[in-house]
Amino acid sequence: MTDKRNIYLKMKTLVEAKNILLEAFPDFDRLCFETIDVADAVNRVLSEPVFAAMSSPNYHAAAMDGIAVAAESTFGAAETDPKILLIGKDAHYINTGHVMPENTNAVIMIENINALNDQQLEIIAPAFPWQNVRRMGEDIVATELVFPRNHKITPYCLGALISAGVFRVNVRKKPAVFIQPTGSELVDHSKVPKKGLPPGQVLDSNSHMLGKLVDTCGGSYFKNKISEDEFELIAKPIQDAAAGDFDMIFISGGSSAGSKDFTRKVISELGDVLIHGVTMMPGKPVIVGKINGKPIFGIPGYPVSAIIAFEQLVRPLINRMLHQPDIPNHEIQVTPTRKIPSKLGLEEFLRVKLGNVSGQIVATPLPRGAGCITSFTEADGIIRIPNHIEGLAENKPTTATLLRPLPEIQNTIVAVGSHDNTMDVLADLLRAKSCRVSLSSSHVGSMGGLMAIKKGLTHVAGTHLLNPDDGTYNISYIQKYLPGTSLKLVHLVQREQGLIVAKNNPKNIQGIEDLNQKGISFINRQSGSGTRILLDFKLSQTGLNSTDISGYSNEEFTHMAVAVAVLGGSADAGLGIYAAAKALNLDFIPVVTESYDLLIPADVFDTKNIQLLLEIIRSNAFKTKVTALGGYHTQNTGEITWSS
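-> structure tokens emitted (644 positions)
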């Protein structure tokens, strides 16, 4: 009897094979979603953006063991003139993490106090406000975007979600894969006789391995019992699986050209064979087909071939279903955007944001505090600083371990400059539009953004710099600090800036002119920010000096941080945008309507990623979401208002 053997169809290159897959399953990324407990969300992919339900921490907490004091009561203490504090009145013993007692705003470490007796303590140095205190919202601010849709949850992210008061999340359903191992010679490891395998029998390792590869990609799998090499025994479970709830099917083994290799025949009789053979080694015999609209793969029996076939063809398809990229992490050379000091004797794992600007991967350090979990959830990579050096020099290449695939880093739009809540909206809509492109924002103020443009360290700079001479925004500063640079200024939004005050305005603050009143504390934005420049201009108009305002030197880097300072009671007022006040249910006193614009170098303006960003900015979806935040106007959003 003559053996009936398969004959390979015309083999395809790997590129051709991948293109055939994309064309055969163009809508294969429309999985349903399910709502699950956040504790079960690690390695799942968000189907909707997640916003913080509460701030973290949600109270002012001691960051050290020691005594809680009102910093003002310690002023004047010195080695030559120690200050005596009374326990229970001027000082309160406190442990790390405990709630700060009422009317205290600083912690003096236990090793810096001298207990004179049970009632008195001696200090030889003053404390400053909020020294050794974790303020409410230091890490996460209620209502802010924690993660955009299509973000894959890690154990770090789980900590951030719970800290943010998020206990249930919407996630994409796991792609369900049916695995059918075939081969009369196969034996499951659970059924190996005590005397061992007889000659001719082989342990079935591939189906277990393939299942765990599916798990690793974020899918789920069902491994059927081993089928002998008979057409009917293989075809029946495949037919049932294709008619069921599975999204994808594997036949493990039987994809080659032997007389007992039935995979191709099963696929061709139940559906269509799209590919039989790919010009790669190992993995050449792989088969790709379609049954009942679902992809089916004939996975080669040799383990290494099975792995290559999975990683080159199957994994990209699963990742596409989950809106995830498909490149593993690895180490790359990066260039720090500024000098990064570090302590001798300590090896530091520095969390950084990364992006490709002008052909180099630039690394921007994230907050280094041990309590800031978001420094991990926002990180693109980690730079290890050895214990024998004092830090990293600016513009000197170093090595970073990637936490995100390199194509995502290459496709990260780096935004440095002024903070605005609309940047969170852009980040989410960008990820919704393309899983390959993301937006990474660093908040250093409008002037910091202009300087980043000058140094070639960013693609986009958010800016709202007021010219007090004529009331215009941004252009005069660009002409002054970036002469001769080819740039385009894109209008993002008009926004309401004003004083953010506590609900019901208990201090009865009516405007900038009231900030010098006794008993009113202020929280400021950092030097160089557009909001700081606006404040100084308004102070000059009202005849006030910065020295007249209690808290003028207390700085925050975002509007939401200003709002949470007011919410937490560490300040009575701060200058910020209406959207931040609305988000935290605070009162708002309008001061000015201003332009918030994006400055973009001309040499990146026409790139695919920037054009995608501009497409989203000009979309109705963006304008609708921004308007819903409150305090924004989008009549001219997306227009190029100036170029050089």
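Confidence is low (pLDDT under 50) at residues 1-5.
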